[in-house]
Amino acid sequence: MLEGFISLPWWGYIVVALSLTHVTIAAVTIFLHRHQAHRALDLHPVISHFFRFWLWLTTGMVTKEWAAIHRKHHAKVETPDDPHSPQQFGIRTVMWQGTELYRREARNLETLDRYGHGTPDDWIERHVYTGRSRQGIVLMFVINLALFGPIGITIWAVQMAWIPIFAAGIINGIGHYWGYRNFEVTDASTNIVPWGILIGGEELHNNHHTFGSSAKLSSKWWEFDIGWMYIRILEIFGLARVKKIPPGLACDTAKQNIDIDTVKAVITARFLVMSQFAREVMKHVHREEMKKADRADRESWALLKRARRLMVRETAQLDEASRRWLHDALAHNVTLGTVYTMKQKLQDIWQRSATTQEHLMQALQEWCREAEATGIEALRQFSQKMRTYTLTPALA
Length: 396
Description:
- This protein is mainly alpha-helical.
- It folds into 2 domains: 10-242, no CATH class; 251-392, no CATH class.
- Helices cover 64% and strands 4% of the residues.
- The protein has helices spanning 10-37, 45-58, 63-75, 86-89, 91-106, 109-115, 123-129, 133-148, 151-171, 196-199, 205-210, 226-236, 260-268, 270-292, 298-312, 320-332, 334-350, 357-373, 377-387; strands at residues 41-43, 240-242, 248-251, 389-392.
């Protein structure tokens, strides 16, 4: 039986396979996604070219095609023009035929022309990485076979299946279908854990759709973005430069009035503001109302209990049955109805795209006065807190 140049125990081959696929995932999340598609960081030419070469060997993916398709996904998310939406194609199709959806969109020259700008276009890209994309995969096959013998074919097969399963299937499919949400954006993006090491941090998909141009995908203290860890290591050695991370909110207790600084903080970090509103106001008030509710009235109790989840969801993500259920719950409980109305009014403020900063400041001031006039303590406290908001730098 033929043997390769390297002989390992059975577990050694598993480690090799996982290590090789992990480098591929790192190349996808750091180079293709955060660097090329979103320009969230700069990479040293040596690192950038290594990733291009590695992706040519292990996936055959073309940088321009990947970046263009992903940018279109963000621009047309969950519409009929989204290249891989489970809401449009169905979860099974995206999970198991995600690669076919990618290939079909890659043949769309309009997509490449409109969304593929700024990607590598040097001689080696045109004549090797793009012009001979399949030869890289064949070369990887030969290398694995030479190094590990027949077991190298299995390692190669794992490498070839890794991206279609975890990227095209799990991230594009489950990442828009099932999981938890830190931020109520208008699309159905979700975070799925624990997949950090296997998907390089890409499992934090809701965070990414909220702050699309951020090099950092984690948001909560317990979320682990291993791709971000690698980026920070590259920064230490001068091989990467982070351009943007999510905005942060701070409270300046010396500031007690809504001013232009408050407006900038609230508008820029609006998803953080709404996340805090959901946690500090809506969930708090709902808990208090549940304590007052009559458990003997099972129908009203069930209506009120389910309202907690529906109140915090983005309206566009509610189906007709959920909308009716929420409407009935809010009509049944005046306090919850008031809190929900204040949520909508707060959202309306930053949707006034043609409004000046002075008008936005006046709108926030009016919102605070109205919130405090409701007599709901949680709203009053949130209003007082919002007056102190200031924006922390968005750069690392």
